[in-house]
Amino acid sequence: MSEKLKIKLSIANRVYPLTIEASQEEGLRKAAKNIDAMIKQFEQSYSVRDKQDVLAMCALQFASQVEQKSIDKESVSEHLEEKLNALNNLLQSHLVS
User: Fold this and answer.
1) Superkingdom of this entry's organism (predicted)?
2) Can you give the pLDDT at residue 1?
């Protein structure tokens, strides 16, 4: 069985108690730190006072990063598939000759 940890994360000046797998702790703490840093950046850059708006902007930023990585990965996969097919065709043509 996996070891469960009880931790408290602070996000936007609120504390969230969580029970997590030990292997998740580092990632969750880094994520909370990144969210707080982004909140500060949005508050300074856009003079936003409403935490709900700032958190929505953070969520949009992180979600768009995930989606962009997915799009980029798909594009790379398609490019690699094209290259592998071209290489395979080249090899096939030399084997037939």
Assistant:
1) Bacteria
2) 59
